Amino acid sequence: MDFALSEQQQAFSETARRFAREKLAPFYQERAKQDSFDRKLLKEMGELGLIGVDLPEAFGGLGEGSVTSGIIVEEIAYGDFNASYIQLLASLMGGIVANHASPDIAKEWVPKVVKGEAIIGLGLTEPRGGSDAANLVLRADKSGNGYRLNGEKTSMSFSTQADAAVVFARTGSIEDGARGVSAFFVELNSEGVTRTSFDDIGTKPVGRGSVFFDDVFVPAEGLISEENKGFSVIMKGFDFSRALIGLECLAPAQASLDETWEYTKEREAFNRPIAQFQGVTFPLAEAETQMTMMRQLCYYTLSLRDQGRPHIAEAAMCKWYVPKVSCEIIHQCLLVHGHFGYTTDLPHHQRYNDVMGLQIGDGTAQIQKMIIAREKVGRVSLQHAKPETQK
Ligand SMILES: Cc1cc2nc3c(=O)[nH]c(=O)nc-3n(C[C@H](O)[C@H](O)[C@H](O)COP(=O)(O)OP(=O)(O)OC[C@H]3O[C@@H](n4cnc5c(N)ncnc54)[C@H](O)[C@@H]3O)c2cc1C
Predict the structure, then answer these.
(1) What is the average per-residue pLDDT within 211-217?
(2) For ligand 1, what atom is nearest to the CA of residue 159?
């Protein structure tokens, strides 16, 4: 296995690192209080070529591999976790639009995403629940040369800021399950769309909330993939985003760890630096070990994707394990800072609240473990017990 970065990857890494550490990190906490993402910053990241590098060159991307996208996500999230939502969504949603939407929509929207001129959101979760994602009720009914959408999507990142969204809707019957679900590209300034945002404990600039569809007309070309086939086709993209989420979450934990090692050299107790107490350094040494393993898992998963090899279980491992352990590491760093750690002056609490959201977003730990189990034993792991087997 070759873990060395190519010259090209090294260049992306350096550009992203400089931008993240000089431009993003110093104002991370200040921006974290805002309830919208700074569009100027979005544009700047686009101009630096740091958004959607994996997207096809035909649509303004650079056709880079998944590993390169991971490198950029990790660097950006080190400076500002919230900013890295831009790279995450661009790769996930931009990929869906580039690969499955109509050529006209892809030609218009993917370049805008890459340039930092547009955000495309994901409308999957509904009020009745997100884990059983295919069991959705928002309807899309044929109407003239298109469809009319009625219902509510909730918990959507960038709910009030996204310019468009890929919205999953039921075109078949409820009994059809995932086979009755289609996906649509919907411009969110369309007539009949209204939006709200939640008062979240973290990721405020990303702004999660509900989007309501009241007889919203979507032209036929807005159908992504084929009718009733959108769900299974598009869900494959989530294996990519799950590995990226791992890197997105471990980066703020690494930032907290780096700062905490420095603190242990400066802070004294009992007339010596606290770095001399194994009770202080051992948890940090354990965290470095976990960090190294998590980073390897994420890049391994992305490299499997780049080689076209199966990586469903690995992606689910990234998604459940890394956000959880990253939160634990940030918490430990906060504790090492003693009473200073408990103030909002230091960034640990902000990082903790931000990262915690992705223990839930994109699928909870339980759902990821179900996916891993399914990969191991097949679909039998998902079947309900038959009546005759129930006691
Ligand atoms: C920060 C953040 C960003 C998000 N961004 C988006 C977005 O952009 N677009 C979007 O569509 N959604 C988004 N979501 C929604 C997210 O995908 C859902 O919250 C998630 O899938 C879980 O759904 P739920 O919250 O409805 O929980 P539920 O499905 O109600 O589950 C509740 C609890 O029960 C557990 N559970 C459910 N079923 C099982 C089972 N079979 N076995 C064991 N345990 C089970 C779950 O793990 C969970 O702990 C976001 C959420 C967050 C927090």
Answers:
(1) 98
(2) 8
